[in-house]
């Protein structure tokens, strides 16, 4: 059996890659990171390719594709450190709304690129003592940190019991405050609720866990793309930079650094593909694979982006080269939606290896 991408998935990969290289160069990324532009223009262009509706069924105007297709797109987005709300709007929100069979209007608006949906799952994943929400029926009080996407039109909010609610940003009593993080290409926010009226989407824990699993796979794919780009940049730089009248790629120490990065990274691609395949086809393995894949890529991504910076020497830390965008992307992905330690514990629990 040959395990790999189909011809259609390879075509999708090539189309998205070509689009991002032409339409989202590093200079555009830098403008978003510096606050001179937003990611709305990028997202609008991606909507023209149908990317927001990649997981949405055709009856709602989407493409009706699989999580492996979404992972292929995510890898390209990570490779180009593309500023976009892909994870929250195109992955988590469609899965939640379709599993719960709710808000077809929002699904159609997502497919058309007209609406964005942010995610506030921090309390359900790892409650923090300095934040939290309380519910009185469908009325929310409190605050949540690190909600994904500060420019969303709606937010999906999960409580400690894994129940999920949808909140319109125009609702009275909701305040959205952008948070400053090390990752400037994607936005996060603090949500403050003062008796905000919400609509319950689901109180089925399985809905939350499936959305979480999909998000972990897509974040792993994003880290894979960012790491691959960092490695490619390091190899290119080593082949051009000269020391002692020789390119540094000829030095054994540099060769070893590049080879070690490649050796760590190459098996990860099959791991991402299999975890995406398991999500759709092997439910019994979905949680285990999603957790291990994201945890493993978090550590590999950190190693690869750090080593790529070392290959560049002092230039690796400059904004001129811009390698720090990929380094920060991998670092942000490492912690968002669960650290490696938390995810490995969740994987063990799913296999009944611990309480």
CATH topology of the largest domain: Butyryl-CoA Dehydrogenase, subunit A, domain 3
Sheet bearing the most strands, described?
A: 4 strands, mixed
CATH class of the largest domain: Mainly Alpha
What share of the residues lie within helices?
A: 40-55%
Distance between the termini: 37 Å
How many structural domains does the protein architecture include?
Answer: 3
Q: Could you state the order of secondary-structure elements as H and E?
A: HHHHHHEHEEEEEEEHEEHHHH
Which structural class do you get from the secondary structure elements? Answer: alpha+beta
- Tell me the overall shape: globular
Radius of gyration over all CA atoms, rounded: 20 Å
Give the name of the CATH architecture of the largest domain: Up-down Bundle
The total beta strand count reads 10
Q: Beta-strand percentage? A: 5-15%
Task: Give the strand line-up of the largest sheet.
Answer: 1-4-5-8
In CATH, the homologous superfamily of the largest domain goes by the name Butyryl-CoA Dehydrogenase, subunit A, domain 3
